[in-house]
Predict the 3D structure of the following.
Amino acid sequence: MSIVVGLTGQTGAGKTTVSKILKEQKISVIDADQVARTVVDTGTQCLSDLALEFSISILNHDGTLNREKMAELVFSDREKLKRLNKIIFPYILKEISQKIEALKKEGKPLIVLDAPTLIESGAYRMCDKVISVLAPENERINRIVMRDRISYDAAQKRVNSQHPDSFYIEKSQYLIHNTGDLRDLRIQTLDVLNKLGHMPSVQQ
């Protein structure tokens, strides 16, 4: 029987690094961000719905989604972010559900759903357990600045649009605290795998 585990956390907390460690352990990981990019491909119903809601100004000249424009709109306005999520989440959930079922049919013992909005989207309901990755706010802001090459203020807006630690603590069975020490992060991740009944390989 397959166990489905949700992996989430605040932006800049280090969830992507944890996901990479899981993949190194040969765990099947579904990347919700990749699914989200797929559902807004040119010509999809989801992209049409977004253009109707936010105007064609969110589209590039070739009809693709202007992700920077979309991010600028929603990360500075919580109501617009809610409207975006209301449109896109059903499409993402349907695709994720299909991927989970396919992996279950393959007999995968552990399936991880890597999703930044795991809880907000309702995707956590597909999961048996939830892991949240947390990190100090200032460290998250600095990582976002370096990762996305945006200003400190823009990164601060993204962080402010996120839930506090308490939200993730309440919704999760397992917590991983990222202090910036990669070895410690790996140890915590492998420890969670062990608690889930998956014997990790000794890899430092």
DSSP finds nine helices and five strands in the chain.
